[in-house]
Write a structure and sequence with these properties.
The complex is a heterodimer of chains A (252) and B (119). With 252 residues, chain A is mainly alpha-helical. Chain A contains 13 helices and no strands. Chain A folds into two domains: 79 residues, no CATH class; 158 residues, no CATH class. Chain B has two domains: 82 residues, no CATH class; 37 residues, no CATH class. At the A-B interface, helix 2, helix 3, helix 4, helix 5 and helix 7 of A face helix 1, helix 2, helix 3, helix 4 and helix 5 of B.
Chain lengths: 252, 119
């Protein structure tokens, strides 16, 4: 057993390749045979990943889903931010610089609108819920931007640790919902061309949600969504604990 | 050689991400600002430059294309390593603040697109 454990530990990433390959294959079969192509195989695989992540969390009590189970540690490396960003950049090879430039204005507007929209919406819902102090409200609003903006803002404003944990949960939930809903709603909301994808990336902003959601919808749209979404977390971290916090103070 | 493609991709990634880190530092933010976006633009500029000189061959493109196609598997792995449990078990407030704005945003998207079509 010890030999096996050491072996797995040494070869984690390769085990990750195999595990993801198996999940992708089974999902493709499920999509074709059971759902008759109603949902694409990649969407099923992403959903299966989320479900496995839930059970991983339940079994280990850890924070990295399936990757907390020792045998599957490599899945975490494979799905970590380095590989994610590296492959997203590679998708740009098939994108057109001209299209990006043309839709740049729309992307910028959506980006600013998206951050304000989610922050205000998050704060308003927390207010209705009965949260009253400005630091907690601001942290919750920041959490509804992304699961990085939430804790960064909470730490900057000295919010309590349970509020910070709440803001992370809100951000993670947002990423998961964007992942699941994008392929289902894409056609209905006009998410069918590069310019719309740029607006979508700026509006939603959650990197993992946008990239996974577009991957399951139409991989050709991924670079356009990613090019605006990549600015969202940084801008959110800039605006939430500073300008938005001040404005929140005036309103309250 | 296939490694040239991978190396150009690596160069774009590293340069772009580093720009994002410095921009974050400059703005006083503890986060990377636009790293992936800069990297994508650098890659596209590199591609154009190589194309003009006729240095872009199929081997080179294959080096980038492999990672382009690995994108969905990476996303599956990313989903499998999300903290889904905390999202599901964080109570009603998390559920509402996480879900309601997302659904509302989806239905705002068509108006945003229309707005841009007017301009």
């Amino acid at each position: 057993m010890e030999i096996f454990n050491n072996f797995i530990d040494k070869n984690g990433l390769v085990v990750g390749f195999l595990v993801i390959g198996i999940i992708a294959f089974l999902s493709e079969v499920f999509s074709k045979k059971v759902l008759r192509g109603y949902l694409p195989g990649s969407a099923i695989a992403i959903l299966a990943g989320l479900i496995l992540a839930y059970f991983g969390g339940v079994f280990t009590g850890g924070e990295k889903g399936l990757a907390d189970i020792v045998v599957f540690k490599g899945v975490g490396t494979f799905g970590g931010s380095m590989f994610r960003d590296f492959t997203i950049v590679a998708t740009a090879m098939g994108a057109s610089y001209l299209t990006m430039k043309k839709a740049g204005w729309l992307g910028l507007v959506s980006l600013l609108f998206g951050i304000v929209f989610f922050f205000v919406f998050g704060v308003a819902l927390a207010l209705i819920w009965g949260v009253r102090d400005a630091a907690s409200l601001c942290t919750i609003g920041a959490g509804s931007c992304t699961y990085i903006v939430g804790p960064v803002t909470g730490a900057a404003l000295g919010a309590s640790s349970d509020i910070i944990a709440l803001s992370i949960a809100i951000g993670v939930l947002k990423a998961i919902l964007v992942t699941i809903l994008t392929p289902l709603l894409a056609k209905r909301v006009g998410l069918t061309n590069p310019a719309a994808a740029m607006a979508f990336g700026g509006l939603m902003g959650t990197n993992s949600g946008v990239s996974a959601g577009l991957a399951a919808t139409d991989p050709a749209l991924v670079p356009y969504g990613a090019v605006t979404a990549t600015f969202y977390t940084g801008l959110g971290c800039l605006l939430c604990p500073s300008l938005f916090y001040l404005m929140l103070g005036w309103v309250l | 050689m296939i490694i040239y493609g991978v190396a150009i991709l690596a160069f774009s990634y590293l340069t772009g991400q580093l720009c994002g880190e410095y921009l974050g530092e400059f703005l006083g933010v503890k986060a990377n600002v636009g790293g992936v976006g800069f990297a994508m633009i650098i890659l596209l500029l590199c591609k154009e430059w190589l194309q003009k000189r006729g240095w872009l061959d199929t081997e080179f493109e294959r080096g980038v294309d492999f990672w382009n196609k690995m994108y969905i598997p990476v996303i599956i792995a990313m989903s499998a390593s999300q903290n889904v449990k905390v999202a599901v078990s964080s109570g009603f407030l998390a559920l509402i603040v996480g879900a309601v704005p997302v659904i509302a945003a989806f239905f705002t998207l068509p108006y945003l697109i229309k707005l841009s079509a007017k301009n």
